Structure formats: C-alpha cells, structure tokens
C-alpha cells in the first residue's frame, strides 16, 4: 500500500497531451513514422513494443532530449516542442538508476529543487519538508541519510521516482523503470506504482517491452512496431481484439494456423466454418491465429483434431503443452489450468484430441493492410473444457 502522507502536494496539474504525426529519422532509418496519440489528463499509458520499435525515441522527444523531423506535441494548447527541456515540467525515471552516488537519498531527491534558478528556488526549510513528504510517499522515510550503494534496486528506483516528482512534474515519463530489477521485485513494484499513480494522478507514460507489465498496470496500452503505432486500446481491447496479426502475436501469443477463406467458408485442418462477414470473404489475403488458451483438450476419446503431445510443463498452477496437430508442421503452444488438465485423461502415446475454441481471422487488402478482424467460434464454445464437435460443413 502507498503511504498516506500529508500534506498532498497541490501543484500536480494534470494536462492532456496531443501528439500528432511525429516522424524521426536517423540517416535512412525511420525510428518514428507518423505517430499520433492523445493522452488524457491523469492517464497511465503504457508504450509497449519489441526492442527497436521506437518507444524510447518517442519518450526522448516528449522529454525534450531530442527533436522530431516533423509533427507536433501540444499540452493544453501549448506547443511543447518549442519549450526547453527544463521548462516542460517533465519528470523522468530511467531503467538504470541515474542517482548521484556521492549524494545521500535526501540530497538526490532535493537535487531538482536545489538547481532551480535562484528566483524559483525554494527556501532550505521548504526543500527539507518537500523531501520528507516525497520520501514518505515512496515509503522510504527512514532511509534519507543512506547513499545509493546502501539501497536495494527497488529502493533506488523509488528514490529515482521521488527525485522525478520533486519538481512537481505535469508529465511523468518512465522508461523501463523496472528493467534492471529481478522478477519478484518487478512484480511487487508494478502493483506499488499502479497504486502510487492512482493516489497522485499525474499523467504518465510508461515504456516497457514486457506485455504482462503493460497489461497489468496501464489504463491504456500503445502497441508499437517498427516505429509505428499498431493499436491503442485498453489492456482488454488489445488482448481480446487485436487489430493486426502483429498485436495478436505480441500481446496474446497468437499463433498462425494454415487457414484459408474460400467461398463463404474458413477452411482449416480439413474442416470448414461459414464466415458471415462479407469483408472477410472478399479479402485478398487472410491470417488465421489461435491463442494458447483457446486450444482445449477434448474430453471424449476420439473427438476433436488429432495432435501429438511434444512436451508438457507445469508452471505455477497452469499447464503448458507443446502440440503438433496432424497435417501441420508448426508446433502449437496450449495453456490449460491444472484443473482442466486433470479432468482430461485421454492423452496416450498416440496423441490426444483437441478443439479450437476460437480462432481470429485477419483480412488484408492487396496492399497488405488489415481491414477486418473476425473471431470465429465453434458452435458450443461455452462448454467448460471441451468444445465441439466442430460443425462440419464439408470434408
Ligand atoms: N541516435 C540514434 N542514431 C541512430 N539510430 C538510432 C538513434 N536512436 C535510436 N536509433 C534507432 O532507432 C530505433 C528505435 O530505437 P528506440 O531506442 O526508440 O527503440 P526502443 O523501442 O526503445 O528499443 P529498446 O526496447 O531496445 O530500448 C532503433 O533501431 C535504434 O537503433
């Protein structure tokens, strides 16, 4: 829980940010390509993408550490790009704790206030009070006199956060703040930061390449790939309704299946389902994906698609299986609960039967642009473990 420290700083003003058509090129390499994004007052937005997708480039431009080649950024009607970095009211927290090793925790936190121009610099007593309040907020009250080398990684990142907050930022930018921490500390700090954001409500942009981190923490997730935004949505939207095959693979671990649309039907593993959506039927090309949790074991022996069990791992209450479906050479990953797996006892050396509970069809036009996504469910998808039998329309 985040400590309830009084008094709450009054100057955390929350402003919306309007990013429009940003482009940043390094030589011939395009790091940001036509990036537009609206961030609401007090929102916690995660920017998620693989390495090199442009996340840090975007953050650096917002922080004033770099300028775009074109595009604009406005905050409450004010052109942010025209302002010097120090006048943007931006707090920064990076992956590698950039704390000053020769300064105590309190001195580190006070740094942003002490280096203010003389006229804007608070009096020594006010700085002392502000530092005490900030250390209370990040739950490090007792550690003011320690040096960074005497802190754990998680504590150092909280000092970095307190230091970023000392200038009373209007926008908080966090670039992989937990990147250098071990897995358990990361998980603890995730919940802590989420709660912390709720208590302060500062508009925040959080860069990560960790899907779970983004989905767990953010109000909205921005998925980036090769310098472009592929999708912006709530964690549930990007997970349940991925806009592109990339988002499906990256967020929902969607796996390609050898499906085709012919006539009015999706043909897959010798079965066919009727497609109701004409935009999918008329597609130039389709990609068919299935998520690991949508591959379920068939309870009745002999039912479903025949599959070989390549491996089975028991990981913290879930079962992860690697399967090879008949007539398809790509292994498929399936995730089941231990309970569902226990109810299924049909796996033999010859294999097991599986059902696909839902598959997603992405329809692309001649230029390769995805113009429609449709999720196809077998008729009895509500059954708890096994679904089916598949509606066999034609052999
Ligand atoms: N100053 C620069 N000069 C040349 N190329 C650059 C420069 N800064 C970034 N790039 C390139 O732009 C691309 C995007 O980099 P960026 O740091 O924004 O990616 P990222 O999504 O933050 O990646 P990571 O998760 O690995 O930090 C990368 O291919 C990178 O090599």
Note the main attributes of this structure:
binds adenosine-5'-triphosphate, five-stranded antiparallel sheet, ATP-binding, single chain, nucleotide-binding, translocase, 395 residues, 32% strand, six-stranded mixed sheet, Rossmann fold, alpha+beta
Short description, anyone?
The chain has helices at residues 55-63, 105-114, 124-137, 153-166, 183-200, 211-217, 235-240, 245-252, 278-281, 338-343, and strands spanning 17-26, 29-39, 44-48, 70-75, 78-79, 90-94, 171-175, 203-208, 220-225, 228-233, 255-257, 260-262, 265-268, 271-274, 285-290, 295-297, 305-315, 318-325, 332-337, 352-356, 359-364, 370-376. It has 395 residues and is α+β, with helices and mostly antiparallel strands. The structure holds adenosine-5'-triphosphate.
Descriptive overview:
The protein has 395 residues and is an alpha+beta fold. It has two domains: 17-240, 3-Layer(aba) Sandwich (Rossmann fold); 253-376, no CATH class. It has ten helices and 22 strands. Helix 2 (105-114) crosses helix 3 (124-137) and helix 3 (124-137) packs across helix 4 (153-166). The protein is globular, with a radius of gyration of 25 Å. Residues 26, 29, 31, 49, 51-57, 209 line the site of adenosine-5'-triphosphate. Adenosine-5'-triphosphate binds at residues 26, 29, 31, 49, 51-57, 209.
What gyration radius follows from the Cα positions, in whole Å? 25 Å
Indicate the structural class. Answer: alpha+beta
What can be said about the biggest beta sheet? 6 strands, mixed
Distance between the termini: 58 Å
Instruction: Report strand %.
Output: 25-35%
List unreliable stretches of 5+ residues. Answer: 6-14, 380-395
What is the helix fraction of residues, given as a range? Answer: 10-25%
User: So what's the overall shape?
Assistant: globular
- Multimeric status of the protein: single chain
Proper CATH architecture of the largest domain: 3-Layer(aba) Sandwich
The largest sheet has its strands arranged as 6-7-8-3-9-10
CATH topology of the largest domain: Rossmann fold
Q: What is the tally of helical segments?
A: 10
The count of β-strands is 22
Overall average residue pLDDT: 84
How many distinct folded domains? 2
The CATH class of the largest domain is identified as Alpha Beta
